[in-house]
């Protein structure tokens, strides 16, 4: 094994030391002035990121991508719509469905809020091969799943 290749236990130690710093940095990301009065939480960040990067979507689509119940997303969308951060409109092709999007008024501030994290991940992932990117993403997903299982946290 090369000298710079950690054993499993060395890797565990390194990650246990690193993860709290990553979480702390993410939590300290400054919320743009325009959004500070809205009491936005980390759970909103994921929803807003999906809408920003993937575009308008239904609650069901958002719930699937966020891997949470539709009722959870519906509550977040309702809250953010009342604050005029999100807009809801009828789907032209199926009037029973509602399409959710970021309001034009707050789009730039949301882009600013997400930019540092997106730029950092871009710097991490760009030099990697597609299979290495997949490995990083899969490792983080597995960590999340295993942590939830071992701590009996709900989804």
Automatic annotation (TrEMBL):
It comes from Thermostaphylospora chromogena. Residues 12-145 form the HTH marR-type domain. GO terms for biological process: response to stress. InterPro entries: HTH_MarR-typ (IPR000835), MarR/SlyA-like (IPR039422), WH-like_DNA-bd_sf (IPR036388), WH_DNA-bd_sf (IPR036390). GO terms for molecular function: DNA binding; DNA-binding transcription factor activity. The keyword Acetylation does not apply. SMART domains: HTH_MARR (SM00347). The keyword ATP-binding does not apply. This is DNA-binding transcriptional regulator, MarR family. Keywords: DNA-binding. It holds the Pfam family MarR. PANTHER family: HTH-TYPE TRANSCRIPTIONAL REPRESSOR YETL (PTHR33164:SF43), TRANSCRIPTIONAL REGULATOR, MARR FAMILY (PTHR33164).
